[in-house]
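Re-run with default settings, no changes from the original entry. Doing this only to confirm the output is reproducible before filing.
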Amino acid sequence: MSTGDGRDGTIRSRMARGRLGGKLAGLTLPQQIMTIALWPFLEQVLSFIASSTALYLSSHMDNPPEVKQQIVAGMGAIGHVLFLGFVMQGAVGMGATAIVSRMTGARQFSEANYSACQAGVLGLMAGICSFLVMFCSTDFLVTSVFTMSPEAQGFAKRFMYIASFSAIFSGIVFAVNAALRGAGDTRFPFIMMLIADGLNIVISLILVNIFHLSIEGLAIGTISGFAISAVALCWILHRRHIRLKSSMNGLTLNEYADSQPNSYVPPLYLDRRSLKPDWGMIRRIIAIGMPQAIEVFGIWLIHLYCLSVISGLGDAVLAAHTIAVRIESMSFLPGFAIGMAASALVGQYLGAGSPKMAMITIRKCTKYSMIFMGTMGAIMCMFPQFFVGMFAKDLPNIIAEGTPVVRTFLILEPFFAAAIVMKMSLRGAGDTRRVMYVSYGVMGFFRIVILFLWHHYLPGTLNLTYIWLLFTVDQIVQAIIFKKFVDDRRWTKLRI
């Protein structure tokens, strides 16, 4: 027997002590990872296409080159303002995933469904708050924080004053999708995002190319996609309840599940009686998600400072940074999808009483992610001008600024991959506080302290490539620390 066979036999014996049900029943661990990660990966690809379409359209409108450069710079500011609005929604999603996955693994299906419904209610609240935050902060952020030309500021504000309304609908979609992933259902969230992003792309193309609505057309496309997706999501989940109720014959959901084969996992559905705000459950979701909200908001502030420094180097540099971020997002599509799978599986295995399988899951997911993202980083490093040129046609100054940045991906991506998966895995186990402390400490040191000193004392040596190399060191240190956290296994003992 080979060493590999021995390892597989050990894994299978541990899986027998912590079996998962539903679509994951009877699958090997790699198959479980693939089953959960496939649809989030396709979802991330779709999201990338949607956001890249907006950037592509903005840089290919019928404008002079200097105006195109200003629009792309404005899109960079737009992305950061949107990131602020989704902080609260991401926190709700993380709390929903952790609770629903743990309850699903423990086969407490009634409680899992109730938690999912409450997550949807909280997602709507977070969406409304996100809209208010984005709408009210746009003018200050765009005009007072980012050092852009007045024309670039104008493009950014015109987009945000319309697109911020989409947060009301995206709050529902993101929260319920996160709960569905926690239950092991990643295909249905993909369908919902296919509606949201697909309609966004189609409507934006029509409004920009046929009706010539310019930046406003992109904003209307964003709202339309999320609004229709939210309505479709609620209607489909309500229809699920009607069909399931007709089969239960008066049994509770847990009793009905117990009467089915052991691998049966009932689908999550919309129960109108579970939509009345339960402040106890909402506090549980917030208690898990709030450290992430604080963490992400802190990261947003850190990125805000970095972006203010970068924008001070000129519109061309800010535009190149915006394009580099978009290109890099291609590489972490598989890494983020694998991280989602790790988060859901870790929660379910802990709920099923198998911390060893949760540990094996993290290690395998980290390995897979590093292979995928490292390979993509190497490809981008070999053809940097091609990738930058996709978004900077006829803009040679932006291509010159962005090309050396893309070459840094060769070093950055493997460590970024490891940090993503281990961070999401720890969050899935409910260990959100330590993740928050590390993110604050490491990013704050490199991206605030070091960059501040560099910017103030050696401003003549500062350029975009060096800033990205500083980001790379940040990710290397984070990956090392999160590896120590995973190995200490304190996350396996948390109660949520």
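Residues 87 and 487 are 29 Å apart (CA to CA). The chain has 18 helices and no strands.
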